[in-house]
Design a protein that fits this description.
- The protein has 60 residues and is mainly alpha-helical.
- It has 2 helices and no strands.
- The radius of gyration is 20 Å and the shape is elongated.
């Protein structure tokens, strides 16, 4: 029974990787889009963190 479970999980992982790396009409995959947007997301998170620290310092 464990072998069937591992086969099913392996097939699901293989399908997920295939889906995430499949190229669209523009030649980009979902992974490429996420990697392109990651620096912007990191900068936005840093801004939110700095704002939160500033609010905490004002309250203290």
């Amino acid at each position: 029974m464990n072998v069937l479970k591992f086969i099913a999980i392996g097939a699901a992982v293989a399908y997920g990787v295939s889906y995430l790396t499949k190229r669209d009409a523009n030649g980009h995959s979902i992974v490429d889009d996420v990697l392109d947007k990651a620096p912007d997301w990191a900068n936005n998170l840093k801004k939110y963190g700095q704002d939160a620290l500033a609010k905490v310092k004002v309250k203290a």
